[in-house]
Amino acid sequence: MECIEFTYEKKYVDDFIGLYRKIYTDHHENMQNDNEIRQLLLGTHTLSDYFSIHKFCVYEGKRVVGRFAITTYHEDENAYFGFFECINDKEVGKIIFDKARQFALEHNYSHIIGPVDASFWIKYRLKINLFDKEPYTGEPYNKDYYQAMFEENGFKVMKHYSSSIYNTVDKSFSNKKYEERLLEFTKAGYKIESPTSEKWEETIGDIYRMITRLYSDFPIYKNLSKEDFASNFDSYRQIVDFSMVKMAYFEGKAVGFFISIPNYGNAVYHTSNPLSILKILKTRKNPKEYVMLYMGVEPEHKGLGKALVQSIVKELTASGLPSIGALQMDGKVTKNYVEEMIEKRYEYNLYCTEL
């Protein structure tokens, strides 16, 4: 077997992208956005100026059997291992991890962290359970045997995350603490409301300001410029259900946010396919489930999180739809919001190995 580092050669770019479809043969499992991956490999993505990507394919004869990339940032002592895909073969996996370690050592990095596909803002974390369920929009999906490959090749769990599967909210459901918190903040002059499409740019600007402050201590977080953040999130305007996006204001200033989208499955990653476009339009009009992606509250407004959650619970009660609270890190209070409604939890790991 041979591991080849490449730059922009069409053959290797095509093999790198094409391997995914050979591994994920079930259409519903295909969560790869080919166009975005190609842009990242060719350095033309909106975020490409923030990092360098070193790309590798593993071949058995002429057949591509594995791929990965190492992402590096200026003045960051860590190397980030991502875009990992591999056939179910321990030998191929060992070649990949050995090569990644060799590259990081040769370039004097102190740790390898992964899986991270280039950026906090693109995709990271490894799924480790509930592979019997179809992946939801925004889920970092992978094969079930990848966990063993990481752990057998010297990676230790750095952080653990979970996504909560919430039952449908029955109209009789009541949580006095959350209801009282919403009433309390409303009486104190706070406004919690859904934005409109016409105010999207203003809303994104407010969310950018808050995320830059509130998410700065998250593992692998990197700042973006306001313009690049807006560009990266521009597609959300077309897929959000604005009733399930909430902004909290106090004295005219945004101090909290909650972003949810309908669960489109993998349709949003395959928009070159007319059937995917039709599915997006149909799902946006008649969602079957929501994915709650981002939430944040300025620390000076303690308790506002429960009020925001209650405003979403009211929407879910009205719609009668289930939801997924996506990718909450252990230790964050958001993980246990409305805990009595949680049916199951998806689990994910972020790994690290010291060099």
Short overview:
With 355 residues, this protein is α+β, with helices and mostly antiparallel strands.
Description:
The chain has 355 residues and is an alpha+beta fold. The chain has 10 helices and 13 strands. Strands 1, 2, 3, 4, 5, 6, 7, 8, 9, 10, 11, 12 and 13 form a 13-stranded mixed β-sheet that branches. The radius of gyration is 21 Å and the shape is globular. The two termini are 25 Å apart.
State the main characteristics.
globular; 2 domains; Aminopeptidase; 13-stranded mixed β-sheet; 10 helices; alpha+beta; 355 residues
How many domains comprise the coordinates?
2
Structural class: alpha+beta
Strand content is: 25-35%
Kindly identify the CATH topology of the largest domain: Aminopeptidase
Mean residue pLDDT:
96
In CATH, the homologous superfamily of the largest domain goes by the name Gcn5-related N-acetyltransferase (GNAT)
**What about the largest sheet?**
13 strands, mixed
- The geometry reads as globular
Residues in helix, %: 25-40%
Number of helices: 10
> Gyration radius, to the nearest Å?
21 Å
